[in-house]
Amino acid sequence: MAATSPFDQQQAIPGVKHIIAVSSGKGGVGKSTVATNLATALGQKNKVGLLDADIYGPSIPRMLGSLNQKPAINKEQKIEPLLRYGIKLMSIGFLIDESSAVVWRGPMLFKAMDQFLRDVSWGELDYLVVDLPPGTGDVQLSLAQKVPVSGAVMVSTPQNVSLTDVKRAVDMFNRVGIRMLGLVENMAYMINPANGEKIQLFPKGELESYMKTQSIPKIGEIPFNPSIGLACEAGVPIVESYKAGAEAQEFLRIAERVRELLPVT
Ligand SMILES: Nc1ncnc2c1ncn2[C@@H]1O[C@H](COP(=O)(O)OP(=O)(O)OP(=O)(O)O)[C@@H](O)[C@H]1O
Ligand SMILES: [Mg+2]
User: How far apart are alpha carbons 74 and 156 in whole angstroms?
Assistant: First the structure.
């Protein structure tokens, strides 16, 4: 008898063409910001869903102005995602109160992921973007085991201190057979408001050369800009609130790269 693997349980979500995982080695590097803006940017041309699976700090409800919302249950007994800026939104933050989440362990997380993937009325989607917690834990594993993930976008800041964590995360995705679509370098530089010049915020580390050895392309570089933080707080992604800005334009380019890497037919 052939050996069974946990990945034998993988089942596509009917109607969903591509699942994209947004991940990082470390916390606080801008994963949720990238996931939110990437989903919103993709949503300008595609049918898009955004799943906030960050059990330890679901921050997308705040970033999309949807705090304290409770999704409805529809006639088919499925959870109806909220609609924000044309994208379908579901967050673990809608289902549980924040203080209880941190004590969740393996089996509960697996069950919660099941609900998100199977019991939400996602409908027809070109892309389902999933915001993961940082690192390489049970949520990542359960996503990889339950559904075919088309690819992962890795978010990192450029410093060397992040490198060990990035390597560990890349290694995990390799092991579970998820393709790395590319790296988004966040908070890499700042634009000097006086003269428009780029200011590097950190010495260039080894991240880029490591990514090259892994054949993972850099698909975007987002500057540090306080207006990104303000947009998050205000609940309107920068792709919507300041469309003409360099940051919004970069997110639109990243979305274009993702469409090239994962075409919808
Ligand atoms: N390019 C940027 N410029 C300025 N502020 C940013 C930028 N990217 C993210 N931020 C801010 O940094 C903070 C952390 O970002 P975010 O929540 O997206 O990170 P995260 O990786 O999802 O964190 P966690 O690991 O806690 O989930 C937020 O307050 C966000 O507004
Ligand atoms: Mg986050």
Answer: 38
Asked if 246 and 192 touch (Cβ cutoff 8 Å), the reply is no
Residue-range domains of the chain with CATH: 10-259 (3.40.50.300)
With pLDDT > 70 as the criterion, what percentage of the chain qualifies? 96
pLDDT at 255 over 60: yes
CB-ligand 1 contact for 220 (6 Å cutoff): no
Within 10 Å of residue 152's Cβ, how many Cβ atoms? Answer: 26
- CA-CA distance, 227 to 98, in Å (whole number)? 26
Q: Is the CB of 79 under 6 A from ligand 1?
A: no
* Dihedral angle computed from the Cα positions of residues 255, 225, 21 and 213, in that order, rounded to the nearest 10 degrees: 90
Cβ neighbours of residue 171 under 8 Å, at least 6 residues apart?
none
Q: Which residues have CB atoms below 5 A from the ion given as ligand 2?
A: 31-32, 54, 59
Q: What is the pTM of this model?
A: 0.95
- Asked whether 38 and 251 are in contact (CB, 8 A), the reply is yes
**Which amino acid type is present at position 127?**
Y
The answer, yes or no, to whether any atom of ligand 1 lies below 6 A from the CB of 228, is: yes
CB-neighbour burial class of residue 261 (10 A; exposed 0-12, middle 13-18, buried 19+): middle
| 162 φψ region: left (φ > 0), alpha (ψ -120 to 50), beta (else) | alpha
Exposure of 57 in the CB half-sphere (CA atoms within 13 A): 9
pLDDT, one tens digit per residue, over 59-110 is 999 999 998 888 999 999 999 999 999 999 999 888 776 666 556 677 888 8
Query: How many angstroms separate the alpha carbon of residue 195 from the centre of ligand 2?
Result: 32
